[in-house]
């Protein structure tokens, strides 16, 4: 495989903080590589250096075939006055200019301009490109293409940025936290899109299911060095544990030997022979090896929350609207002691509003909420990060409590609690402004947990927290004896923590699903397949229309042709699927045939779903004519 990216002896530091030094690695064609490190280790800085947006202190970066390289930043820069359509097509290559012209004139009644635009699309073979772009835009559920960027939410902006980089079909793509601000449905679509693509990928993400399914190699940044693992996230966890265990054993051996050498240094003879000098040099090398950090088993930290009474939280027939948008409609629920609830739903469905209602930050427009007298909330909010930047980290937490009472009746100091959440003691006396964005989010989480709540509410806790912090938080929640309500798009987090789900289905409807996210996804997918089949059978086949009949808001000439083709393709694929299923059940296939047919059947399922989704989107627009 040819080399796509070559990084040699790269180094970067900020002031006294050394992010990394002498790191080297190569990424080859079609490799999908994840970069893992704790917050503040320099992940984003490394990506920016590779993309040429930030200087390095030493070393070299070479990207081969730069003309086909794209970088999706955490917060992509966009022109606020651009429409969504203009932003998506802002690369302005020949095909995109032709599509832009075609989409503008097709809304007019200028037959001559329409025919010229169609001829231009035919000349450059732009129809296939335009169809693929339309499929991406449909799957990403982009807002009105004429809407300005300045009017979009964070999730909508992220989807526009994704569309912008994906439609160019880059051969090398860098993604920095691509799943932030995306709902679960969008994350799963992107996951499938990237895993099937032959694109070369380097990405930073905290979404462990996404990482596990998409990436086939992991780069770990630890102590300013790079460790490489040729496997997915599950393989990385196994091999990382082995590496840490070996490092601990080597450090312990060095520490034992160092005790003997220290005694020799104390009684070292004054005569400096060549042999003695060599032993002195070896002592200092041994001292450096013995000072390497020893990874210790993390203590079981069960914070003792405020005592819970019998009455916890009762929601009675609650309704709430934002204007014409219905958030809750007659919702009733009584919380029980110790339950852990996950909240999922599309962006804009009202998940955060629900949290504000149950914590009395918003009043319901109908119904009422009764909170038990002993309930003490701990509320981690998306926008709750407010610190005096000059305050020392240790002073931030000491303002809340000097000690934290844990479940066995003992107390631990504020410093020990910080250390548990991966703030090593040297960082305690740094001012807050020296922390990275992710480290500040982690400090905010610590301030919420230190108040010993017995009803913990977490609104997108996995955004901006690194994987190591998420593991610590999950361990903490596993032993938390109060109630937990969590809004998150992190499926791994949900599967590990929650007992059941509140699924926001839109128009104020909330489904209480008895299980974790993976169980819900299996149930939901089966239900959707049944609904799509019913709809396909119920909708009549559309009549072909002439180009001159196209009007604003209606299907374009190309889309009508696509709709007709999709119906034929789906029918053929479903017939093939049924034939394969019959063969698989016959018992007459050889082992080789069984393997081949099973693989083809597995490939047909997502292909049928993708084409059916596009068919439904076009059919719904056709029905409104």
In total, the number of strands is 20
Uncertain residue ranges = 294-300, 540-552
Largest sheet: 6 strands, mixed
Shape descriptor reads globular
Strand order of the largest sheet: 5-6-7-3-8-9
CATH architecture of the largest domain: 3-Layer(aba) Sandwich
Structural class: alpha/beta
User: CATH H-level name of the largest domain... which superfamily?
Assistant: P-loop containing nucleotide triphosphate hydrolases
Q: Specify the helix fraction band.
A: 40-55%
Average pLDDT reading: 81
At the fold tier of CATH, the topology name of the largest domain is: Rossmann fold
| Tally of discrete structural domains | 4
Q: In CATH, what is the class of the largest domain?
A: Alpha Beta
Any idea what the radius of gyration is? 29 Å
Oligomer: single chain
Q: What's the number of helices?
A: 19
How far apart the termini lie comes to 51 Å
Beta-strand percent range: 15-25%
Explain the overall architecture.
- The chain is of the alpha/beta class.
- It folds into four domains: 3-92 and 132-235, Rossmann fold (3-Layer(aba) Sandwich), CATH 3.40.50; 236-290; 313-521, Rossmann fold (3-Layer(aba) Sandwich), CATH 3.40.50.300; 539-623, Helix Hairpins (Orthogonal Bundle).
- It is built from 19 helices and 20 strands.
- The protein has a six-stranded mixed β-sheet, with helices on both faces. A six-stranded mixed β-sheet has the order 14-17-18-12-19-20, sandwiched between helices.
- Strand 6 (172-176), helix 7 (184-196) and strand 7 form a beta-alpha-beta unit.
- Helix 3 (94-105) packs antiparallel against helix 4, helix 9 crosses helix 10 and helix 18 runs antiparallel to helix 19 (591-623).
- The longest helix is centred in the middle third of the chain and has 34 residues, at 233-266.
- It starts with a strand and ends with a helix.
- The model is unreliable at 294-300 and 540-552 (pLDDT under 50).
């Amino acid at each position: 495989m040819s080399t796509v990216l070559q990084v040699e002896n790269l180094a970067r530091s900020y002031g006294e903080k050394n992010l990394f030094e002498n790191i080297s690695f190569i990424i080859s064609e079609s490799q999908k590589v994840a970069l893992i490190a704790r917050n503040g280790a320099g992940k984003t800085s490394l990506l920016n250096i590779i993309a040429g947006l930030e200087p390095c202190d030493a070393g070299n970066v070479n990207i081969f075939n730069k003309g086909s390289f794209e970088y999706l930043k955490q917060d992509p820069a966009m022109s606020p006055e651009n429409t969504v359509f203009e932003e998506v097509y802002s690369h302005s290559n020949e095909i995109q200019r032709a599509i832009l012209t075609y989409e503008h004139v097709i809304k007019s009644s200028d037959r001559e301009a329409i025919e010229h635009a169609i001829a231009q699309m035919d000349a450059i073979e732009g129809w296939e490109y335009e169809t693929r772009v339309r499929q991406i835009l449909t799957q990403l559920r982009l807002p009105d293409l004429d809407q300005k960027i300045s009017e979009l939410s964070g999730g909508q902006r992220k989807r526009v940025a994704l569309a912008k980089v994906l439609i160019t079909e880059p051969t090398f793509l860098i993604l920095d936290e691509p799943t932030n601000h995306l709902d679960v449905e969008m994350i799963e679509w992107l996951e499938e899109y990237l895993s099937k693509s032959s694109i070369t990928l380097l990405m930073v993400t905290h979404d462990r299911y996404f990482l596990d399914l998409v990436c086939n190699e992991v780069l770990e940044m630890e102590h300013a060095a790079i460790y490489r693992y040729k496997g997915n996230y599950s393989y990385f966890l196994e091999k990382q544990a082995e590496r840490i265990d070996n490092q601990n054993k080597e450090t312990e051996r060095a520490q034992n030997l160092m005790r003997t050498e220290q005694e020799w240094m104390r009684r070292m003879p004054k005569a400096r022979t060549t042999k003695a000098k060599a032993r002195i040099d070896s002592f200092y090398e041994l001292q450096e090896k013995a000072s390497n950090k020893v990874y210790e088993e993390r203590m079981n930290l069960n914070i003792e929350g405020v005592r819970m009474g019998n009455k916890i939280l009762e929601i009675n027939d609650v309704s709430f609207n934002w204007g014409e948008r219905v958030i809750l409609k007659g919702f009733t629920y009584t919380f029980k002691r110790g339950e852990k609830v996950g909240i999922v739903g599309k962006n804009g469905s009202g998940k955060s509003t629900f949290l504000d209602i149950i914590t009395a930050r918003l009043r319901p427009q109908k119904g009422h909420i009764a909170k038990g007298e002993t309930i003490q909330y701990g509320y981690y909010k998306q926008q709750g990060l407010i610190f005096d930047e000059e305050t020392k980290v240790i002073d931030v937490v000491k303002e809340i409590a000097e000690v934290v009472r844990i479940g066995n009746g003992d107390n631990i100091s504020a410093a020990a609690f910080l250390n548990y959440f991966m703030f090593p003691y040297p960082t305690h006396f740094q001012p807050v402004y020296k922390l990275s964005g992710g480290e500040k989010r982690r400090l905010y989480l610590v301030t919420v947990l230190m108040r010993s709540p017995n009803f913990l509410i977490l609104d997108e806790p996995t955004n901006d927290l690194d994987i190591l912090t998420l593991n610590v938080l999950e361990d903490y929640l596993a032993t938390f004896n109060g109630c937990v309500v969590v809004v998150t798009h992190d499926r791994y987090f949900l599967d590990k923590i929650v007992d059941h789900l509140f699924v926001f289905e839109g128009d104020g409807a909330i489904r209480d699903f008895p299980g974790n996210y993976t169980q819900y996804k299996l149930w939901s997918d089966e239900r959707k397949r049944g609904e799509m089949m019913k709809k396909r059978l119920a909708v009549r086949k559309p009549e072909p229309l002439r180009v001159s009949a196209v009007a604003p808001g209606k299907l374009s000439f190309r889309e009508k042709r696509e709709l007709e083709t999709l119906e034929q393709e789906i029918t053929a694929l479903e017939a093939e699927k049924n034939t394969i299923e019959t063969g698989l059940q016959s018992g007459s296939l050889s082992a080789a045939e069984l393997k081949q047919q099973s693989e083809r059947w597995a490939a047909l399922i997502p292909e049928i779903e993708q084409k059916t989704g596009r068919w439904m989107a076009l059919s719904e627009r056709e029905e409104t004519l």
